[in-house]
Amino acid sequence: MILDKDGSEYDWHVGYGPPPEKFLETIEKSVKGIDTFKSISSAYAKNPKNVEMVFKLARKYDRKYEQEKSVELYKEVLALDPDGKMGTTDYQEKKVTFSEYAEFSIGAMQAFARKMDPGPLQAFIKKYPESPLMKSAYQRLSYYYGRQAPKEEAKEFFEKYTSNYPDDPYVLSSYAARIIRDKDNLDKGIELSEKINNEIMKYNPDPYYMKDLAQLYMLNGDKDKAEDAFGKRFMEGRVSWWNYGLMQYATFWVNQKTNIESAEAMMELAMKIDPGRWYNFRTAAQNYIKLEKHDKAMEIFGPEFIAKHQDDASVLNSYAMFWAAQGKNLESALEAAKKSVELQEAYYNWDTLATVYQKMEKWEDALKAVEKAHELADDQIKARYENKIQQIKKAIEKNKEK
Question: What's the rounded Cα separation, in Å, for the pair 381 and 374?
């Protein structure tokens, strides 16, 4: 709400949507007196037959949810310009006449009124079959047909609605919701819901839509299908997907060295919602090291963490290699590397142990470990360890010369 210096209403804006620059532009227009409530009201008072000003004033009240006043003004628009020849407004980057928009708005309000009346919007659909407002008109009507219309009327409406927009999950879901409400025509509901989840949303399933499919299966007496669609496996998959997204988001912004507060919050959330996903902790620790928050990295991926994973050679090996690369926390890294070798005598575990010894400048122990890695490695990999053996032997000779 923006007030004039005398305390009277100057302008208002209900709600906010990004980007912030666009919203700021809107506020700045108000400050300059462009299309404010006060300027439009003044123009309307001077010339109440100016269709553009009547329309703009109607929309001002409409956006403030003062429906009685906005309907009165929209009706004035229709009286002044019944044929829609006296101007247009923008709607989703398309032009709509003042009269067309006025008819739509009046119909939408009546469809949502305490005593719902779908008639005006139905008339709008017949009158303007090519209108950019058509889909919005159907969406408003779906509220009435989804809740109050008799079953057969609802079926007729939703068959038309879904045939017009067969690939819109929201549209298909609105019909499925009415079927769930009626507990009737279940095969149709399942058909719609399976199309949403198995085709349209196949690669990014949404719990909102999957819930409806499970509900339809349950109503149809098929509990196994319901559990398969919306059971433990589904939700574990969603948790995994979101964990991946959260950590990707955090790593991206840490690397950009900006938006850090949000990046940290997302890392913490990922570790909280799935504490069993150990590599999230490693990724988070790496990010905290990039942020020069070494204490935080140690807190989440240090000795306390690895104490919980003493029976997992893979985690132990990764932990040891991580800290060897940092050249820090080496005593704990050494313990982890030794334990990984005990659990699994694989060449890569011996290689990690050798690397930790190298970082600690324990050259003789490093040589024994890398020779063991060389012994266990495939022929294709042995050459790499032969080079590493030579490097360590040189370091041993150099150390003897001191």
Answer: 8
Question: Residue 99 CB: number of other CB atoms within 10 A?
Answer: 24
Cβ atoms of 109 and 125 within 8 Å: the answer is no
Distance CA 376, CA 370 (A): 10
Measured between its terminal Cα atoms, the distance across the chain in Å is 79
Q: Where are the alpha helices (DSSP H) in 114-231?
A: 119-127, 134-147, 151-164, 169-182, 186-195, 207-219, 223-230
pLDDT tens-place string over residues 363-379? 999 999 999 999 999 88
pTM above 0.85, yes or no: no
Bridge partner list, 9: 3
Contact 153, 182 (CB under 8 A): no
Structure-token pair, residue 41: 């009201």
Q: What's at 398, amino acid-wise?
A: K
Q: Is the pLDDT of residue 402 over 70?
A: no
Q: Could you tell me if 140 and 110 are in contact, meaning their C-beta atoms sit under 8 angstroms apart?
A: no
E strand or H helix that includes residue 89: strand 88-91
Return d(Cα 222, Cα 215) in angstroms, integer.
Answer: 10
Give the list of residues 6+ apart from residue 326 with CB closer than 8 angstroms, or none: 289
Average pLDDT over residues 145-169: 96
Taking the mean position of all CA atoms in its chain, how far away is CA 189?
26
Whether 229 contacts 217, CB under 8 Å: yes
**CB burial readout 295-316, b (16+ within 10 A) else e:** ebbbebbbeebbeebeebbbbb
Sequence-distant (6+) residues with CB within 8 A of 357 are: 334, 363, 365, 366, 369
| Residue whose C-alpha is closest to residue 131's, from 104, 168, 170 | 104
Helices and strands, number each (H, E), in the chain: 22, 4
CA dist 289 and 270 (Å) reads 18
CA dist 386 → 73, 74, 106, 121, 393 (Å): 87, 85, 82, 80, 11
Q: What angle do CA 126, 177, 192 make, to 5 degrees?
A: 80
Task: Kindly report, residue by residue over 295-316, the tens digit of the pLDDT.
Answer: 999 999 999 999 999 999 999 9
